[in-house]
Automatic annotation (TrEMBL):
Enzyme category, top tier: hydrolase
Catalytic activity reported: GTP + 4 H2O = 2,5-diamino-6-hydroxy-4-(5-phosphoribosylamino)-pyrimidine + formate + 2 phosphate + 3 H(+)
Gene Ontology annotations for the cellular component aspect, listed alphabetically: cytosol
Metabolic or biological pathway: Cofactor biosynthesis; riboflavin biosynthesis; 5-amino-6-(D-ribitylamino)uracil from GTP: step 1/4
Lineage per the UniProt record: Bacteria, Pseudomonadati, Pseudomonadota, Alphaproteobacteria, Rhodobacterales
Protein name: GTP cyclohydrolase-2
Protein's GO biological process: riboflavin biosynthetic process
Organism: Maritimibacter fusiformis
Coiled coil: none
Amino acid sequence: MTLLPDLSELAARARADLRMGLPVAISFAGQAALVAAAETLDDTRLSALRALGPVMLAITPRRADTLKARAYSDHVARVRVPGDAGVEWIHNVADPAGDLAMPMKGPLTTERGGDEGIARAGVMLAKAAHLLPAAVLVAVDDAGAVAAENRLTWLSLDKLDDLVPTGPLDEVVAARVPLAVSEAGRVHVFRPRDGGEEHYAVEIGKPERSKPVLARLHSACFTGDLMGSLKCDCGPQLRAALAAMGEAGAGVLLYLNQEGRGIGLANKMRAYSLQDQGFDTVEANHRLGFEDDERDFRIGSQILSALGFSSVRLMTNNPAKVAMMQANGIEVVERVPLKAGHSTHNAAYLATKAKKSGHLL
């Protein structure tokens, strides 16, 4: 028996540290560095990092492309931080909020060649922490020793995939919840073992496990689901899906905590601000440094399997959800279109989803 945390637990601790502005120590492929999230870094800790050596800023190729900087990689761009640059410079490179007001941020000098593993790890951790995907790094000789001296979290990685929070899910509890669409409602709460956010399954009626269940994978949308935002169609889709299940007498709605297509609410609001500047939803994500869609739909297949379902009639307009279900052992016998919430406020948003993200609207 051991009380020592395993790697997934250390990664969860590291994500929390980055959100608080603490650096973490990372060792990978013979290299070692201290890594801090660009978004939460302050002047005091930047000075402490500089005392250890030259500082580098890791950003995604998407963000580098916006800044007209060469990534020299499909995974990460490593930007040299000038010796006289403070956290304001770092924040301006990482955050596109001021891009139009201050378009000239360079020229930025980026590294070519050499090992990029820890730079990739830093960006991956920042993403997983729902921060801007940018990390500040300083190389050290012995990450373990530096971590021990400064009481920092230390991750010794064999592979970068260990940082991706996709661990097994455990059902914590289930309870009857009468709903407006059906008094026979039941909510299941699933918790990832890797410290990630909980996800929920709303079961309507008593769907037979031996037959394809009417199902919906719905990603959490605070603004649409709760506030009635007109910028998206999420809220109307959520209510339409539940209503359809209530009318059918049975169904399962998976409510996945993957806000903003997996980038978190704060970054989603950043994307909204960029949309107000004239960028569409995909362009806004790219300027922030994210891909079009950062969600992991494998979570949905895990929950369905845990509930005993092997086939679904999937309510979606997104072919990617169908493909992901099929690839992870859940048979999709039918795609059920779900069209709701179209308005003048979200017409451009929906057109972009259809044109750039392949949604069938």
